[in-house]
Design a protein that fits this description.
globular, 5 helices, six-stranded parallel β-sheet, homotetramer, alpha/beta, Rossmann fold
């Protein structure tokens, strides 16, 4: 029976690399896949890019009011559907992803963040955490060596906890750093240690 | 560094058994622990009971407006805090649990459900899924043999998807059955297969 | 497709409790299971007992020269086969367990230790680590709070690293303590910290 | 406390890609790492290459009679040691890796295969499975869609179960295909399904 997977991890943990590698594994065995991405993600246009250098064209840019179930219906011959930057979908689209696994028996593997720079859940990610068959963490480390969980936002290099939920990395002088909860709260309270990078 | 754990699983997967076993492991090594439970959980009063027969008195029944951080502050000598039926806490109390791990360096292990009988998240569980250091599933199986994820509610033996989010198992003729998504949706659509139990 | 599982963990981590709980979950859903144990395990006769108090009669005591494949063949109506103290089987019996999952499509869940008191693998466990579909750790902690991995043997309360691989806990003044690698090697080198229990 | 990790997976599951991504994550945070590889691995000389295109020069080619403990001693300023193709080390070198985590408090992350083309364990991998702090599977799928576990060897495109344990992929007309146990045994028994690739 097909399953809905959520592989989550903080910013820059390597989610896209693992998506590209897993997609490669499928295709190397002669299987067919599609890769979709929310249209809300402006980074790299209709491409997805790994920081290791690999990249791939996205098959569908999914709009907020679009039915993913319909996209699946048009691709019933695929062996797997990959979703990158899943946090930018709508929650009702996550329920559709679950239905794809049940009705069409096609596995769906989603990659994304759990929470925004204020530690609030992205609605689609929260829904995935609630109903995914399988939740798996892709780990990365904080500047202190501990596991990073939160995503701190910097505007012009200055830490902030104000602004809209969505601000794409690299646009409008926004950057992110993934941090463990301890370093994140210390940084917010002004006790910012010197960045190692 | 202490961590906040969420060990989730569908109804009757054995969460309380594993809580009691882990608590036993700590105490067997001479370590000190406390077990807390939301006061909202009416089952077994201030006891927690495993279906295998083991039981234990709860150290604190936590009220919705109570500070768990204060409870921890009164127990800084403990090696671990266990939370049973964590889904009945308030979301802000989950943020307190994270702070306990950061400020007091005490690990907190929570056991509970992800979603209610309508597949909606319990607010405290959703918050835990968003910010826990570590999320781990305690598995059980559906009547069909697949992994159970959802919790179907039966009133007088009849499946329902109406009613309040909280209705304790065994009270007011309410019972639950943990199901895989496929069986759950089929059952709701009237295609209920004969129960094996 | 049925799978061969190895749930390993150091002494006293709660393996038998989890076996009993999982077996209970199967039976509660009207499914049929059998529990087997190597005859080499002298503890509790043909019973298995959890330190939490629960217990159960074993269906088969498997001798070193016995075929588990034949036992399975006589029980093709079961939904799952449980193996306790799997480290005391023979390696060729582990290959039979894998065949049971392939030929008869019956899942097999094994519980046991990875290594003996000298950190050498038990041959059956080693074979399981090599070929099991799924390996899962049941964790417990060392006296120092870190995760325990090794099993230190004490004779008359004195740590030893000499003797036969198999010496059952509680017989001939033998006891065990599960330890992290650091504490284990320090203890062997005479730097034994005061036991907390 | 530093840990010894074993991330295992069948041929072509993407182990090297994940090594390169994790190494990248460390260095991006200003941390220092070294990558070592057994000299027995002839593939790509002193490089490691991911099938996605990324590559990296290895810092040390470790000979069978060389002490990895000494290599670590010369690099006490590193934050992590990565080992690729770990199955080609000697078992006693695995015990050294554990000691590196205990004595020098440096984490060691190993990537490799569990078993050879006959399903026999590689001695170093078997030792790792016995004593690693943490064992994690990197999954890939069989031609049939199930999880691949075994590594079938083909010589001139013909499946074989004879020959030396070590024969490097791509040399002497040797190729490998990762398979689930069911397909592997069926293929060996002459019931080879048409390859999809």
């Amino acid at each position: 029976m097909a399953k809905l997977y959520f592989k989550y991890g903080a910013m820059n943990c390597g989610k896209t690399t693992i998506l590209l590698q897993t997609a490669h594994n499928y295709e190397e065995r002669g299987m067919k896949i599609i890769v979709v991405k929310p249209s809300k993600d402006l980074k790299a246009g209709d491409n997805i890019q790994s920081r290791l250098g690999a990249e791939r064209k996205v098959d569908y840019l999914v709009k907020p009011d679009e039915s993913i179930l319909e996209i699946a219906k048009d691709n019933l011959d695929v062996d797997c559907i990959f979703v990158d930057e899943v946090q930018f979908l709508e929650p009702k689209q996550i329920d559709e992803l679950l239905k794809i696994t049940i009705i069409y028996d096609i596995p769906v593997i989603c990659y994304g963040l759990r929470t925004d720079f204020k530690t609030n859940g992205f609605p689609a990610s929260t829904r995935l955490l609630e109903i995914a068959h399988k939740i798996e963490e892709i780990k990365t480390m904080c500047r202190c060596g501990a596991k990073a969980i939160f995503n701190a936002r910097f505007v012009n290099g200055k830490l902030t906890n104000e602004g809209d939920q969505v601000a794409i990395d690299g646009f409008d002088n926004v950057t992110y750093e993934s941090m463990c909860p301890k370093c994140y709260y210390e940084a917010l309270n002004g006790k910012v240690k010197k960045l190692t990078k």
